[in-house]
Design goal:
single chain, about 625 residues, Aldehyde Ferredoxin Oxidoreductase,  A, domain 1, Aldehyde Ferredoxin Oxidoreductase Protein, subunit A, domain 3, 3 domains, six-stranded mixed β-sheet, four-stranded mixed β-sheet, 28 helices, about 15% strand, globular, disordered N terminus, binds iron/sulfur cluster
Amino acid sequence: MKNALPDKEITGSLNNVLEIDLSLKTFSKFIISRRMRKMYLGGKGLGLKLLYDRLKPGIDPLGEDSLIVIMTGVLAGTSAPCSGRFHAVFKSPLTRILGSSSCGGSFGRRLKSNGWDGIILKGKSEKPVTLHIHNDKVQFCKAANLWGKDIPETQAAIGTKKQESLVIGPAGENLVRFANVAAGHRYLGRGGLGAVMGSKNLKAIIALKGDYKVVPYFKNRFQKIKDRANKYINQNHVSLLMRQFGTAANANPIIKNNMLPVNNFTYGNHPDAVKITGEAIKENHNTRHHTCKPCSILCGHKGVFNKRLTNVPEYETLALLGANLGVFDPNDISRFNDICNKKGLDTISSGGTLAWVMEATGKGLVKTDLKFGSSHEIVKALNSIADLEGFGRQMAKGSRALSSKFGGKEFAIQVKGLEMAGYDPRGAWGQGLGYAVANRGACHLSSFPVGFENLTGLLNPHTIRAKPEFIKFFENINAAVNSMDICQFTGYGFTLETWLIRMTPHLILKLIMQNLPTIAIALVDFSLYPKFFSAACGIDLSSKQFLKAGERIHILERLMNTNEGIRKDDDTLPKRLLLEPQKDDPRKRLVPLDPMLEKYYKLRGYDVDGLPKKSLLRKLEIIM
Ligand code: SF4
């Protein structure tokens, strides 16, 4: 007989993590302590902590000792805006340091309905399997019939009624270093989680509808916070642009500021770039919302491309698989996007890698048919990467590995092995520092100063002043937000629509942020996040504790990376961005990285080699 409902209510979290051994086909329960919850919050933070306690440095990311941790946050399953997200952390086969990826697909909420806050996966199945999770039971099912199927075929075979899944495609099975994982129509893209699942012979994880219901610990308080959060989102300019045009809303301001990567970051703009703006796509492709759930910003869209209703490519895809490859026809870019989504490839790394191959082909370093603007060849190349055919076998290792083997490192646009996102930092120097020091490589989500240097115009893009202070702050707050696990895009509404900011004229705000960054940062009100946390799970958390948790999470990730061998020399940018101006920039600007890096190290408490100092680790209680 089923338990009565009160026993099946979760107030924020049950703190249960499902530990699954794929080699032994066994599973057990691990319980997260209240202290650990408060220190690492959930999502990315708790995922990292669980990994740190279990993963030996130096292991092969695609070997049997490799681990995957998938974690939800305390808001998953509640009706808080943009809160249905979950995180995966793992050692990346692309970068060989920590990989992490966030996703808004419904898998996390469905997992939680079974009474689990997360999953730790270890070992390796001898033969292809799928995992079926239902309440306190886990079934290991043979998946030979699914192996070789692409993502839509696998999802169709699994079915979507009452279940949500994480699925890999052929790229994951073939260990493509930047293979992604699908959760419904959303993806865990960066760093090659798909290959790690493939290396474990794990085709899919399926969470059936469980018996648990998530309810906030303080219901009335939660409702009031939620109302305020939605009010802020609904009056915020950037959130409203994303609601209308998706992440492609970024394209227009990026183009205006000459920051669009064109032809492997050679140019910052193109006469046809206007075709890939959010405005043009909305007008020409009959777009409509197709989002994560629950969501109040609504940035996800689908639209009609090549006479078919499909996902609208995200800004990053338009930039990296489009402009950066010399392609500006949204129908062509949509076709590339669909191939990546079908085969299971990260669009940013695919674009960065193909751009390197195009340039290397032109310079005679490799022999391929790829050249900028060659849409037909791009289609063939993406398929060849996923299926490891011909030169696809080399491309499947990413741009760092290619340039190490064939030469051309200076134009491999990657940091720490991860291909760069779609914002040329020569147009926004804070973003340059952000890419150089981000833990997972050239990542735009670790800190996103472009949001202030460009989209809101609150920081001057071409100065080094205030950038180290803001990068540190953004990294800390984003680490905490990603551990809630709530969408980072809430940051605009939650912080910029507070009373103090709304009352302060834009020019004054800009002057304070640019000239008095420490004071500006101290005045930022991000209290909605810890208030949501406390109302959801009943654990008191102040704004100060929330930010400190973010710092702890960021520094723990840095420590794990330095344990893997990361040092100061790795905190840099590709030579092209440091020494070679964009061909269409009359002012010939480059990223002045060194002075920003020096100040950032001091603020962070890293030693001269880039290692977090022992005193910092003790202060953050990472070590005792
Ligand atoms: S804003 Fe976009 S990415 Fe964030 S939760 Fe909503 S649909 Fe997902």
